[in-house]
Design a protein that fits this description.
By secondary structure, this protein is α/β, with parallel strands linked by helices. The protein has seven domains: 88 residues, no CATH class; 65 residues; 80 residues; 183 residues, Rossmann fold; 179 residues, P-loop containing nucleotide triphosphate hydrolases (Rossmann fold), CATH 3.40.50.300; 58 residues, no CATH class; 94 residues, Alpha-Beta Plaits (2-Layer Sandwich), CATH 3.30.70.600. Helix content is 35%, strand content 21%. The chain is built from 26 helices and 35 strands. The strands form eight sheets. Strands 15-16-14-17-18-13-19 form a seven-stranded parallel sheet, sandwiched between helices. A hairpin with a 6-residue loop joins strand 11 and strand 12. The radius of gyration is 30 Å and the shape is globular. The N and C termini lie far apart (66 Å).
Length: 829
Amino acid sequence: MLELQVEGHQQERITKFVDVILPLAISKKYTYRVPYELTLSVAVGKRVIVQFGKSKIYAAVVYAISSKAPERYEAKYILDVLDDSAIITSDQLKLWDWVSDYYMCHIGEVMQAAMPAVFKLASETKIMASAQLASVDRTTLNDKEYLILDALDLAGELRVSDIIKLLGQKTVFPILKSLFSKDVIVISEELRERYKPKKKAFVILHSLFDSDEERRLLLDSLERAPKQQDAVLAYFQLRRRQDYIAKSELLEVSGCGQSALKSLVDKGVFIIEERVLSRLYGEDVFVESSFDLNEAQAEAVKSIQHQFVEKEVVLLHGVTASGKTQIYIRLIETALAKGHTILYLLPEIALTSQIVERLRVHFGKEVGVYHSRFNDNERAEVWRKVLNGEIKVVLGARSAVFLPFQRLGLVIVDEEHEVSFKQFDPAPRYHARDTAVYLGHLYQAKVLLGSATPSIETYYNAKSNKYGLVTLSQRYGESKLPAIRIVSLKEEGRDKRLQSYFSETLLNAIKQAIHQKEQVILFQNRRGYTPMLLCRTCGYTPKCTNCDVSLTFHKSTGKLHCHYCGFKEELIQVCPACGSTHLENKGFGTERIEEELAMLVPEAKIGRLDLDSTRGKDSFERIINDFDQQEFNVLVGTQMVAKGLDFGRVTVIGIINADTLINYPDFRAFERSFSLLSQVSGRAGRRSTVGNVIIQAYATQHRVLEQVVNHDYEGMFTTEIQERKHYAYPPFYRLIKIDVKHKDLNEGHHAAHRLGVLLKEAFGSRVLGPETPLISRIRNYFINTLLVKIERDGTSIQKVKTALRQLLINFESDKANKGVFVQLDVDPY
């Protein structure tokens, strides 16, 4: 027995080393020594506290454990183990490796994107007291916790490094973890408002008045209060044709006023009840727990399940308003019955707030929402619940692919064509749709991609039998595809029928819709008032001091804004170059459309939906709710209005200028313009009324516009795929974009040419550039771009990436390239 104990003791004394992932852009994992007392505590996927550099402290993730010391440097000791059990799964680490390898970035950058900030505590992380602090009994805190809160009371905000100095110890993370778990502290930069579902007030008649006799007596008793009597009569009238009567509708029909309705509530005649609504299938549709699929939907579900037998990925190509969401819910039910977890990805946070309550009615507490609008403590809570298997249905934006799933069985990527699924900055520059496909492969789960206008690559994969394909060509219910009409701005201008930016046709349609108490959406994909100021005397244009772009005038602030770096300056009244006062506005954005329309159609009540109008707390939800409840009848917006929003009373869609979309210098311009115009058009006529879409353009004969009018996705795909093959673009070639940045124009230009020579020596004609991009300077860095095209057939992408990595290491280690910053973007679209 004694021998066994000694042997066990010796076993524990074996020195262990851990390879950890630090939340930094370093190319390798770093190795640390484990103190004997922590040997049994360390495990892959746990976080450990380490010192990196001279004085920086980080929470790192254990990637591997071994007994082998690093050869080139002496391993420091880890300071502490932060977790009782692993918070990162082995499958997550495999995904991180794949993202790091495929998108050619550092695994630490993947860690930064993947984990909530609560888990990534570092020396520079800022901590502040939470809103719940006032209700905390401080006598339950230990001395060190009390000291931290005392310091927060005085300073308001502390860095972790400040807390290390305050307590005189490096291992402060367990103390902070304890305070986090008690909801006493939060990470300051992550304070965001939580999601609020859409609610509406409804009027219910008290059950005392269920019988006809009681109702007659009620009306008799209200003879001396005619307004209250009108309200009750209007209620009875509305109740004959609908189950639920909204408070706003009763007030409108009866004309009784708020005070009369309040009196009826005080008397106990009416009860006002706030209920959660769904905008998915009607403006006032309750979140129902059951529904029936129509024949086409039922057939689609059957076909998807049949194709899942042989295919890992299936594309659901359904026209706008064809009821794809109902199909998703049926598939989720099937997956849940098998004990699987489901990931439901949407491109925009706004869309998650539209569907979450419907899913919660179907699936209860098993639904979790994960996106950046939630504060960091909430995201950490969802993370842990997914890890523990409490949450079975995860609804989220692109970062939700990094959650610690258990038994993942189904991944749904809705609106898969959306560019919002691609992260452009910072690294990892991953595409959530493609990452979701790999995630499905990793877990042996099925992946369903849904879209009315699929990306060319996805549809090509479906057509070439790599993916399954299911098509829904009819809208749900009685709604018909909208009638689309193209109006020539050239002809309208020539015949003097153009008023400001509005054709006679569009103005008449707007007026008619307003007269009939219907709603209008106007689309202009440029925010602000005017994109450019121009001096008519000398041609001077105000430009950003940090970027090579003209400043956009925003009337709401009265300032000139840069949309790339956020620089602002006061509006100039006199040209600084020649002193002239003849300054004129060129172009127009959503602010100007809103102002001009208010003058042309005074009866229009106008709202605006763009990045500027949705910056405030709950502003997106507020604008959408107000429009849905007809607080205003015209919504002017950028591409935000195109993304899956559903309004029952919108009958007119106006695209102010389609040429700006089509004439963009990008190989995807035609695909994107077709998609955007089709999606915007799909907002019209989503009930029984046929929608009316008016597209204003100069290039009225352009093939993309004709394809949009004819709802001809197949025609667009056929022409695009031929051009892509001819000019060597995806899906036939892979692209790697390389941006060479430098603060000096000439140095950057020379460095890009040196890199271009090296790349062409290695990859020959596959390399294009260097070229100056459309925006050649951003945040004081001059940019030169190279493009590497790699054919999919016959070329190993892995070998190309390996050679490219080595080439870039050699390039960056050359002293001639000091100050050069190289940025890689794999699949830059």
